[in-house]
Amino acid sequence: MKHVHKLLNTGHGEIVDADLSSYFDTIPHSDLLKSVARRVVDGAMLHLIKMWLEAPVEETDERGNKHRSTRNRDEGQGTPQGAPISPLLSNLYMRRFVLGWKKLGHEKRFGAHIVNYADDMVICCRGHAEEALVSMRDMMSKLKLTVNETKTRVCKLPEEKFDFLGYTFGRCYSTKTGRAYIGTVPSKKRVQRICAAISDETGRNKTTLDVEDIVGKLNQMLRGWANYFCLGPVSKAYSAVDQHTRKRLRQWLCAKHQVAWPGKKRFPSASFYKVYGLVSLTERTASLPWATS
Questions:
Q1: pTM score, two decimals?
Q2: Phi, psi angles (nearest 5°) of residue 262
Q3: Which residue intervals of 2-85 are DSSP H helices?
Q4: Cα dihedral 223→225→231→235 (10° resolution)
Q5: Residue 126 carries which DSSP code?
Q6: Of 126, 168, 33, 125, nearest to 136 (Cα)?
Q7: In what helix (H) or strand (E) does residue 169 lie, and over which residues does it extend?
Q8: What is the distance, to the nearest Å, from the Cα of residue 232 to the centroid of all Cα atoms in its chain?
Q9: Continuous segment of H or E residues that includes residue 140
Q10: What is the pLDDT of residues 113-137, one digit of tens each?
Q11: Is the CB of residue 12 less than 8 Å from the CB of residue 134?
Q12: How far apart are CA 235 and CA 110, in angstroms?
């Protein structure tokens, strides 16, 4: 994230916001194993990795029926998502693209730097982003990977914004001076996702649980989310998540104790933090010196 931020603030204002279709499921076994063989000479280990790639996967259909799939072995492609070795192998194969980009001179020609985390990728360019996109498509085709054309685009800052690894990059404004700058905020999708998860944990089907268990689970979720989303001005996102959490916890308490909604007198907001020990992200913001810049 910091690497992208640095590039954006050193003139790399044209972004190839790239997306690959089913990356983990389409990595070709033969080419991947060649990449592994350049680093591992132990034949037994190479055979074990090949077996891991071809191992059947248990899948559950829409009706809840389980069956074993041998698609990876039959098609000769794909790393099983969820397998401990898959993140390592996926990054290893993506390295082919990253190194090839430099060796072919695209980085210098377009002033284009790749920043990726597995298959999540952006190419930060000083210019010529459209040409960089064409070159990226050509290389991905040779690597037997498919570019998702509906989600891949060229984005020009500061007029436009783009999302990367859960953050939205674009023009922000200082709450102190009103000055515009290129920064990051937690994306709307990620805020909506954590709110949906909080709703699931406070559903009516969980009113038999103790409040300590519910609050403990919520605190775990909130801390984990905030530990990742701590870059840039996060106060608005934190406030939205806090507000949703209070609302859902109050609804859960009303349902559990059969109190008429909205139940603010019986369950005031202050009690969530002082009595039940709920984590407040808004209070956490005060400890982040960059959070409101």
A1: 0.86
A2: -90, -10
A3: 2-8, 23-26, 29-37, 43-54, 71-75
A4: -80
A5: S
A6: 125
A7: strand 167-173
A8: 16
A9: helix 129-142
A10: 999 998 899 999 999 999 999 999 9
A11: no
A12: 36
